[in-house]
Design a protein that fits this description.
The chain is mainly beta. It is built from one helix and twelve strands; from the N terminus they run βββββββββββαβ. The protein has one domain (3-123). Strands 3, 4, 5, 6, 7, 8, 10 and 11 form an eight-stranded antiparallel β-sheet that branches. Strands 2-1-12-9 form a four-stranded antiparallel β-sheet, with no helix packed on it. Pfam families: DUF1850.
């Protein structure tokens, strides 16, 4: 069975989940973004993207629908072998949040706090 692996800062963490959510705060607009993903074999597939607002180059696409306070849509290029996340050392930027198996944690709680970049990919 495939699981999710996170690699960064010389550490690899395995999360026995085939579905997860990535969440972050837009650094300029301070508006939350979220993406739901699935691990399917050797691929990561984005199921849905959500944003609470628009502005500063973050407008939702025309097919997005407002539901429960979020604009929601399914991205066109939804399948990838890996996702690379960049992290900022700036204190006011915040960190990525990964939610899986009913628990949400900042990447700095899973990998070294200064790990950058962080690679997400399916693994055995």
């Amino acid at each position: 069975m495939s699981v999710l692996c996170l690699a960064g800062g010389g550490v690899v963490a395995r999360i026995a989940a085939t579905a997860f959510t990535l969440a972050w705060m837009h650094t300029v607009e301070r508006i939350p973004w979220e993406e739901d993903w699935r691990v399917e074999g050797d691929r990561l597939v984005v199921v849905e993207s959500r944003v609470k607002g628009s502005g500063a180059g973050m407008d939702p696409p025309p097919e997005a629908r407002l539901l429960d306070g979020f604009y929601r849509w399914t991205p066109e290029q939804g399948e990838r072998r890996e996702v690379i996340l960049r992290r900022s050392p700036a204190p006011n930027v915040g960190d990525w949040t990964l939610c899986a198996l009913g628990t949400c944690r900042k990447l700095g709680e899973i990998l070294p706090p200064d790990a950058d970049p962080v690679r997400l990919y399916p693994c055995e």
